[in-house]
Amino acid sequence: MRMLGWWGLLAALMTGPVTAETSVSGAEMIETGSQAGLQAWIEAFRDRALTEGISAATFDAVMREVTFDPKIIEKDRNQNEFTKTIWDYLDTAVSQDRVTLGIRALEANRPLLERIEAEYGVEKEIVVAVWGLESAYGTFRGDLPVIGSLATLAYDGRRRAFFEGELIAALRILESGDVSAAELSGSWAGASGHTQFMPSSWAQFAVDFDGDGKRNIWGSDPADALASTAAYLKHWGWTTGQRWGLEVTLPDGFDYDQTTEAVRKPVAEWRALGVRPALGGDLPDHGTASVLLPGGARGAAFLIFGNFQVIEKYNTADAYVIGIGHLADRIGGGAPLTADWPREYRALTLAERRELQERLGEAGFDPGGVDGRIGPKTIAAVKSFQTAQGLVPDGYPSLDILTRLR
Ligand code: CA
After folding, report:
1. 161 contacts 155 by C-beta, under 8 angstroms
2. Which one of 56, 222, 247, 332 has the lowest number of neighbouring Cβ atoms within 10 Å?
3. First vs last Cα of the chain: how many Å apart?
4. Helix (H, G, I), strand (E, B) or coil at 182
5. Percentage above 90 pLDDT, the chain
6. How far is the CA of 209 from the centre of ligand 1 (A)?
7. 58-72, 79-93, 195-209, 290-304: range with lowest mean pLDDT
8. What is the bridge-based pairing of β-strands 185-186 and 301-304?
9. Torsion of CA 13, 19, 24, 25, to 10 degrees
10. Counting runs of H as helices and runs of E as strands, what totals does the chain give?
C-alpha cells in the first residue's frame, strides 16, 4: 500500500506502472475523458456505493459537486515518464531548508511528539521526517477535492479497482462526520492530510490522539495526523531504537553481488567483510542487514536494517526511504552524507529504460519484462551484463550501460 504523498509521488516515479483496467461499470459504454462521461460513470457507480453502505443522501450530495479535471489524468499518465536520480531527489528531499524547518517543527511540537513517541515507540525525528516529506510540515497538504480526484481516476480506469475502493473509503470518511467534504482536500491522487494518508489508510490506522472524538488528520492541528503516522509505522513492525540504516564504506574488492536488499546477513558478517560506518565508529548491531548502492558503486553505500522495510510501507522507492531516514538523522543533529554521487549521469527516460530492458533481453540477460520499471530483476540483469563485460557489477542502470548495449 503506497501513500502517494507529495514528495512520495516523486519517489513513486521509480516504483513503476500499474496495469490498465478497461472494464466499464454497467452494460453501456461510457464516454471517456469528459464531464458528461464522468457523470454517467457516477450514475453507474451509485448502486455499488449504496450496496457498500454509503447513504444515498451522502452520495448524491457529494457527487453533485464533482467535476472532471483533465489535469489529474495528465498527472497520472506522466507519473512514470519522468524520474529523478537519487541525488537530485535527495538534494530537494533533504535540502538545508527542509532540515532547518524540521528542527523548528520538532521544537514547536516537542511535548506532542514525545507523547506520540512514548505511546507508539516511533522516534519523533522519523515522524517529523515523514511530515516534512509528505507535506513540508503541513504547509502543502494539497487543495484538490479528494472525492473529485478519486472519482476522476476511477472513471478514467487505468487503476479502476484501486480508486473505486479508495472512493468508497473516502465516502465513508464523510459519513463518519470527522471532516466535511469541503475540508477533505489533498493531492491529485487522493492522499490527504499532514502525512498524506489514502482514505483506506485513514480507516485502518488513523487515531484520535487529541481526544476530541474525531480522527482529524486534515486540520491545522497536526496531533492526530502525526500520531496516525506513528500508529501506521508501529503496525508494520517498527522497532524502537533501531536505525533505518546508515551510510557505510565498502572495502576494495567487495563482492557487488551482495549489494541488494535481497541479501541479508548479520551485522557481524558485514563487519568481517570490511563494511564500516562512513562517519567512523562501530556498526550498530540491529540484527540482519543489507547493503544498498542506490547510485551505483560510485555513489553512497548504505547498510539498511529492518526499519527500512517498515518505511517502505509508506512508499517502496529506495530514494523515498533513504530520504525519510536521512532527513530524520539530520533533524536529530546528524551529519550530511559523506560520499559523492556520479552527478554526470542523468536519469534515463521511460523510453530509454524500456530500450535498456529490451536490449538486455536480446543480449541474453532477462530483465523480467519490458515495462520501463527498474526493479530487482532488471538490476540483476544489469549486474550480469556488467560482469560479462568485466565492469564493476553494481547494477546501476546508467546511460553508459545503455550505450554499451547499443
Ligand atoms: Ca482528534
Report:
1. no
2. 56
3. 37
4. coil
5. 83
6. 6
7. 79-93
8. unpaired
9. -80
10. 18, 7
Q: Are strands 301-304 and 245-249 parallel, antiparallel or unpaired?
A: antiparallel
> From residue 244, how far is each of 126, 135, 336, 372, 393 by CA, in Å?
9, 21, 16, 28, 25
Torsion of the alpha carbons at 281, 284, 290 and 293, rounded to the nearest 10: -30
Contact of 86 with 318, CB cutoff 8 Å: yes
Environment class of residue 8 by beta-carbon count within 10 Å: exposed (0-12), middle (13-18) or buried (19+)?
buried
Q: Report how far ligand 1's centroid is from the alpha carbon of 108 (Å).
A: 19
Nearest-CA neighbor of 62 among 184, 200, 157? 184
**DSSP per residue, 98-145:** HHHHHHHHHHHTHHHHHHHHHHH---HHHHHHHHHHHHTTTT----EE
Over the range 195-207, which residues count as b (16 or more CB within 10 Å of their CB) and which as e? bbbbbbbbbebbb
| Cα of 215 from ligand 1 centre, angstroms | 5
> How is the chain split into domains, by residue range?
350-405
CA distance 127 to 233: 9
Residue 313 identity (one-letter amino acid):
K
pLDDT in the model for residue 81? 65
Helix, strand, coil percentages for the chain (3-state, nearest 5): 50, 5, 45
Distance 240 CA to ligand 1 centre (A): 25
Dist. CA 224 → ligand 1 center (Å): 5
Closest CA to 22 of 189, 151, 161, 147: 161
115 alpha carbon to ligand 1 midpoint, in Å? 15
Q: What is the pLDDT of residue 210?
A: 97
pLDDT tens-digit readout, 343-387? 999 999 999 999 999 999 999 999 999 998 888 899 999 999 999
CA distances from 334 to 246, 325, 327, 338, 385 (A): 11, 11, 9, 12, 38
Neighbours of 74 (CB within 10 A): 11
Q: List, for residues 87-105, the tens digit of each pLDDT value.
A: 999 999 999 999 999 999 9
Ligand 1 centroid to Cα of residue 222, in Å, is: 9
CA of 190 to the centre of ligand 1 (A): 21
